[in-house]
Amino acid sequence: MIRFSEFILEEVTEDEIDVLIESIVWEDIIDMYDESELVMEAISATERIKMSQKLKSRKFLMAMARRVKLRRAAPTDILTKRSKVSARKMVMRKLLKGRNKTELSASERNNIEARASKMLSMMKNLPTKLMPKVRELDRQRVASRGKK
Predict the structure, then answer these.
(1) From CA 62, how far away is CA 117, in angstroms rounded?
(2) How far, in Å, CA of 69 to CA of 23, rounded?
(3) Where in the chain are the domains?
């Protein structure tokens, strides 16, 4: 296996970066989200430690792929995911009523998560309504990238 210090010295082509980006899976990008905002299944402490070690070992690789991805406009499926996440955050913000999610007890957090899921299932069109705003924010992000 090649070490990271050797990897930096090599010239990386655009095609290699594209292959790298396409190979990224959810486990690779999970660190982009705030842990308090993730809706995860209940996992054991050992599984949590293993996940942490796995992510730490791939940190530099993911950072490079993230920088390349941020230079480009996001495809529709990514924008759809972002609108769903935004809808969930909006519902959670409403249910939390100004409180911080990390300060809640586990039972309160589970209760609010269940209520949010129920509300989102009733309001299936909320992510669709947010889609134009998410698309506009992405356009602004890409446009402002060129101005810097």
Answers:
(1) 30
(2) 13
(3) 1-72, 74-148
- pLDDT 10s digit of each residue in the chain, 148 long? 566 565 555 555 666 666 666 666 656 555 555 555 555 567 788 888 998 998 899 999 989 988 888 888 888 998 999 898 888 888 888 888 888 888 888 889 889 988 988 888 888 888 888 899 989 888 888 888 767 5
* Distance, CA of 148 to CA of 145 (rounded, Å): 6
Sequence-separated (6 or more) residues with CB below 8 Å from residue 135: 79
What is the rounded CA–CA span in Å between residue 32 and residue 43? Answer: 19
Q: Quick one: 127 exposed, middle or buried, by C-beta within 10 A (0-12, 13-18, 19+)?
A: buried
